[in-house]
Amino acid sequence: RSLVGSEMCIRDRGNIIVAMSLDNEKAHQFISNLWDTSIIPTLSEYIKIPNVSPAFDKEWATNGHCDKAVKLLTDWAKQQNLKGFKLEILSLDHRTPLVFITVDPTNKDFNHTVLLYGHLDKQPPLKGLWESGLDPYTPVIRDGKLYGRGGADDGYAIFAAVGAIKALQEQNLPHARYVIVIEASEESGSPDLPFYVEHLKDRIGVPDLIVCLDSGCGTYDQMWLTTSLRGLIAGDLRVDIIEQGSHSGHASGIVPSSFRIIRKLLDRIEDVDTGELKLKELYVDIPADRMEQVKTCSNALGKHLYEEFTWVGKAQPVDYDLEKLLLNRTWRPTLSVTGAEGLPPLDIAGNVLRPYTALKLSVRLPPTLEAEPSAKKLKEALEKDPPYGAKVTFKVDKCGAGWNAPVLAEWLKNAVENASSTFFKKHANYLGEGGSIPFMGMLGQKFPEAQFVVTGLLGPESNAHGPNEMFIIDYAKKLNSCIVSILLDHYKYRSK
Is a pLDDT exceeding 60 seen at residue 16? Predict the structure, then answer.
């Protein structure tokens, strides 16, 4: 093997038999055409399917939505006619299905594997909250953006993964062995994935590069790599004070309000003035390299870091210090109340002192913090010494650790920079994400020597999980082209 100019070539008895140089323009044209003629139409059909994640759809196993989505995506993948392609749909022990794809390496003696990951389940639709002319299950292309639930998070992933491999094969370029894993329970915390990974461990092998297509970007003018993800504790905090509701004129002043009690409990864990969490056990020392990345990232994002949100009137962020805001979102614990029970709708709320109040709590954790001990500390803080002897319970239903990326290998750093400079005409950038991808932490522990490319379409105003979810089609094409380039650079590096 030798280097010829910028091309890496394989020699056989002195003759060059394979030149490993990507025709960048041809690759991007191929990817762009694939998106226009095949991916966008199929992804639009996927958007129409209400395949909500199991945590939000108790009938997922019988209503057929998940099966329909799996069939649509796998039929498309099969139709791409990749060489060395094998696809299997696993559905074991009453679990959500898993799409498992392998693509043989061009050289059977090449023993390096790349794992590509995505998911096909969706968040709830939030019908009625979308802008006029938009609907979660009606795909709409407007101003170069594709709107609809699940398109960006994360229906596009299987298309991008298969499309990238197809682009290499179209140019007759050599490539590694590829494993594509598409799960159907990520939005529920990936409860079924550990089982499948263990079940498939011999067939997965030991990947030295992991590409996750379920993350985001800070801007739309360059490639972004995610360097960390926060962990998550989610659960139901409930306060019961009386067996049944009572006339508020008769009971108030004698029976303490369950709402007031739950406010007191929240005050135990969160500073109401700053939003900072009070439990010291939920904090970690932030690594120096991540502090440096925050400085670079805050300069790149600028005021758009907070201006992307649809503020009401004169509402404002918790601070205007960009570095502080980024650290809050990526390396510090936060509390969000995402749901409530025991509160009747306003139009039927009578003068009743209610028997109980329940809140759904979402607590984001620093990337390197252990989740289970943190959940125990949180539960203890909320349940101990209940005010007025009320019945207080905190039931944890999601508990997952975050992830901090390993140091980027020099070859991969160069590959990412080259890809971004080629297809975006701008250098790559790096940021931590405030959300969670449970699979990344699991893979980081299982494959400690692996390198990671964690990226995605979720950028400013993409609004994953909320109304008006969308992605920018041109950005998707360029990012997909970047993945093609990085996959080839992986092969080049491992072939030396």
Answer: no
